[in-house]
Amino acid sequence: MxxxxxxxxxxxxxxxxxxxxxxxxxxPFIFAAPGNPGTATLAxxxxxxxxxxxxxxxxxxxxxxxxxxxxxxxxxxxGLTDHLHRAGIAVFGxxxxxxxxxxxxxxxxxxxxxxxxxxxxYHAFSSTExxxxxxxxxxxxxxxxxxxxxxxxxxxxCSTGDEAEQHIRLCLDDQKFGGAGLRILMEECLFGPExxxxxxxxxxxxxxxxxSRDHKRIGENDSGPNTGGMGAFAPVHLTAELYAEIDxxxxxxVLAELRRRDIPYRGVLYAGLMLTEQGPQVLxxxxxxxxxxxxxxxxxxRGDFLELCTSTAAGELGAYLQGFHDTEEGAPGExxxxxxxxxxxxxxxxxxxxxxxxxxxxxxxxIELPVHEDEDRWMIHAGTRAxxxxxxxxxxxxxxxxxxxxxxxxxxxxxxxxxAETHFEGLTFRRDIGGKGVNDGK
Length: 442
Description:
Strand content: 25-35%
Distance between the termini: 49 Å
CATH class of the largest domain: Alpha Beta
CATH superfamily of the largest domain: ATP-grasp fold, B domain
Shape: globular
Radius of gyration: 21 Å
Structural class: alpha+beta
Largest sheet: 6 strands, antiparallel
CATH topology of the largest domain: D-amino Acid Aminotransferase, Chain A, domain 1
């Protein structure tokens, strides 16, 4: 009897997760809650509210679900994993304590500092008056962050005092981000290329997936406001020294600090890094797969993604990793899990968004999708809704055009070619995703 898997979430990340799980040789039966038109082609969508743990648990018990994979941060931060564990259900995703790394940026800073991990200096405020007084004393630019999870939109890099004051008031006075912005961090601004590292861990053993790079700003050349992510590419090839430094100075100390604090963690820990002249420093932690990084990292995996998730949830990741000692030519020696990655392939995703995003945008515009997809290019649904006769826009980030190739140029051409065959009124996208190359420090 095939395994039954429930994927929680409805965005592009969840479509990518379902797609990778469906490729398992174990031929699992997959549910997606609530899913989207993309997941519906590979899984059975279920009208289930992820923020109602009682309903999720009841569904899992009724359907005899073997594994739950939680995509978005909100159910994790609210403790869905703990409810499922109490019912005896296996989960890929941390519990309430581990998810606090994303749900409370001030707590994450405390963990980093205790672990001796390099990160930007910061101060925390819940008073507008105190924040503005501190602003007068510091050098610009400054980074201001909502302490809670705000779907990637609560962070502002402010070059002027007026910009900084505006974002402070947006968080604390206007409560633009609700409870997530009632306390803020003011951080020194770090400089350098960004890097996303996804750490799969069962609390003891761990592996690192292919390093990737997200493009967070809405406009070309990283201009305009932050978004949830406008595109990504993988792998980012680093120097041997950087691979080793990320593992030794960031990953190992953080996992050790979580164990020291008796915080169980079975799932993926997302480290957002800045590669500064002084070395890699942590910008943020997320407690789940990144979006859109997941769309470019999972296609480069060797092996069975379902088995990776299952062994992690069971605390048996080390045994699974024993089968990946052999690495391909060009794989870094100091990257735990390097044998799980196809290093001679590249993957790019370009997000097609609604005009106006990340601000106000219009929904329910008919979408004309490409006629032809294949193993080198495919479409990921993010903010779409099924209607009679097709699909319409239903979100800010609507679709993700994914392309793969033997080099970055080939992967970019495949992704952009697919997007060129996609049409809806107000379609907007960046034209420079992956345009700066894949190497750092070489």
